[in-house]
Design goal:
266 residues, mainly alpha, Arc Repressor Mutant, subunit A, Four Helix Bundle (Hemerythrin (Met), subunit A), 2 domains, two-stranded antiparallel sheet, 11 helices, 3% strand, elongated
């Protein structure tokens, strides 16, 4: 899971569908077409173009819409059903599931949410789960980290301090938080955190639009120092200060992202 965030969305979809359909003997061309249909339909469902509990177009209409075969449509629907977005009933058709049924820990479902123009609810839920998971991970690391781990965390903070663009900072920030999650030694925290961080990275990249300049230097120094406070508490072996320092970092990141979005909407 941890490495999925470093691959393109298209590669992830391709691998997932190859795994799902290997026994069916689909051709490479069919798999690529299936990936395209999965991506476009999934994005449309998350965007609300096909509202919850409504029927999606019939297979012949989807075939015409995407210019693909019935086999491709059926495989794409199977994939979206597995992700919790669709449910199919014989002689009734295929209906969009309630959002509460969607697999929010599926990398593609997360990515489709980050691509929305106003993902406000998603953003709030994303930071809510970060507040539950990451402070607990920081507290675990304070108990379990070795001297070698301390050095690795210091290096991660240095990478943050040396970032020259928003994109570079987002990547360095992702790596820092993934490192804390992995050093926790808890596999549930690791897997859950990796997916959340990957979604956050996708969202930050879409917000910054690429290699834009960083914020003012004093503000960036403050952000880096907040991360260093986490490391200092971990080095001291104090779980509660480590937990609180992580809470402070996440709250600051959420406030900054909200301000950035508000500024763009004006």
């Amino acid at each position: 899971m941890a490495n999925d965030g470093t691959h393109s969305a298209g590669e992830r979809i391709h691998r997932a569908i190859m795994s799902l359909t290997a026994a069916g003997g689909l051709t490479e061309r069919a798999v690529n077409h299936t990936a395209h249909v999965v991506d476009r339909l999934g994005l449309a469902i998350v965007a609300g173009e096909y509202p919850e509990r409504t029927m999606i177009p019939l297979d012949p209409d989807l075939e015409e819409m995407f210019g693909v075969s019935r086999t491709v449509i059926r495989e794409a629907k199977k994939t979206l059903i597995a992700k919790g977005l669709l449910v199919s009933k014989a002689k009734v058709g295929t209906r969009v599931c309630p959002a509460s049924d969607w697999n929010m820990f599926d990398p593609d479902v997360l990515r489709w949410h980050t691509m929305q123009r106003r993902p406000d609810q998603f953003l709030a839920e994303l930071f809510e789960i970060r507040m539950i998971v990451e402070p607990a991970a920081a507290a675990c690391v304070a108990i379990r980290a070795t001297a070698e781990d301390h050095a690795t965390l210091d290096a991660a903070c240095t990478a943050l301090a040396q970032a020259t663009t928003r994109h570079d900072f987002a990547l360095a920030d992702l790596e820092f938080h993934k490192l804390v999650l992995h050093l926790s030694g808890n596999r549930f925290l690791q897997s859950l955190g990796d997916l959340v961080q990957a979604a956050l990275y996708s969202l930050l990249v879409s917000e910054t639009g690429g290699p834009n300049p960083l914020r003012e230097a004093p503000e960036m120094v403050q952000v880096v120092e907040r991360h260093r406070a986490i490391v200092a508490a971990i080095k001291a072996g104090t779980p509660e200060p480590a937990r609180l320092a992580m809470v402070h970092v996440i709250a600051g990141a959420q406030s900054e992202l909200v301000r950035s979005r508000e500024g763009q909407s004006r």
